TrEMBL record:
Membrane topology: Multi-pass membrane protein
Protein name: Lysine transporter LysE
Keyword Cell wall biogenesis/degradation: no
InterPro entries cross-referenced by the UniProt entry: LeuE-type
Source species: Flavobacterium gawalongense
CC terms in the record's Gene Ontology section: plasma membrane
Transmembrane segments: 6-28, 40-65, 71-92, 113-137, 149-169, 189-210
Keywords associated with the record: Cell membrane, Membrane, Transmembrane, Transmembrane helix
GO molecular function: amino acid transmembrane transporter activity
Keyword Glycoprotein appears in the UniProt entry: no
Subcellular location(s) of the protein: Cell membrane
Length: 211
């Protein structure tokens, strides 16, 4: 494994994790439509800074639990319970999301920058996502927990995230109909993803106790 591989893995995992329509990328696209690309890029800059620290802290936590199999299995069991509950909620309880077409008020670039930081900080998905990714990659000897590899990997995460956000800003009008369809069916999509993760987690738990 080398630093280029670590950079590419960070880039790809960020690209995969952020590509589905979500609060941050959809807000960035709508800010661009209402206020222009400059405001949208300021918004994205704020969001990416938080993503950097979220990914970095997630990997440091993953390095700790990777040395503690007892903590890892405990987190897997807790994660299985959480993802199972989320699957039940999104598939059978949550109401269908409505697409709001309201106008976005125009704010200064500074306010957009801090709004990006705020929305990104409120999004806790990256932390468990990068913990899971780094632990999985490490188990296949595709990732090293040395500080150099961690920094390069996180740099790849920032680059991948920035590219996805830029694509949303640039091409949102062309893909708006498709993203609207995805947003209407977001509960089913999220529920299916959490259900799949719950199943994989359960398999890993069973393997741990049977070995």
């Amino acid at each position: 494994m080398n630093l280029i591989t670590s950079l590419l893995l960070g880039f790809v995992t960020a690209f995969v994790g952020i590509t589905p329509p979500g609060l941050i990328n959809m807000t960035a696209a709508k800010v661009n439509l209402k206020e222009g690309k400059r405001s949208a890029l300021w918004f994205v800059s704020g969001a990416v800074i938080i993503i950097f620290f979220q990914a970095y802290l997630a990997i440091l936590f993953a390095r700790y639990i990777d040395k503690r199999p007892d903590v890892l299995i405990l987190l897997r069991e807790a994660g299985f319970g959480v993802f199972t509950l989320l699957t039940i909620y999104f598939l059978w309880i949550a109401k269908k999301p409505k697409i709001k077409k309201g106008k976005i008020k125009k704010y200064s670039s500074t306010k957009r920058f801090f709004l990006g930081m705020l929305l990104s900080a409120l999004n806790f998905f990256p932390i468990p996502y990068y913990v899971f990714v780094s632990v999985t990659l490490s188990s296949y000897n595709l990732f090293s927990y040395s500080m150099t590899y961690i920094f390069v990997f996180v740099t790849g995460v920032v680059l991948g995230s920035s590219l996805v956000f830029y694509c949303y800003i640039t091409f949102f009008q062309k893909i708006q109909d498709k993203t609207d369809y995805i947003m209407r069916n977001m509960n089913t999509i999220i529920g299916s993803i959490t259900g799949l993760i719950a199943a994989i987690t359960l398999i890993n738990i069973i393997r741990y106790y049977l070995r």
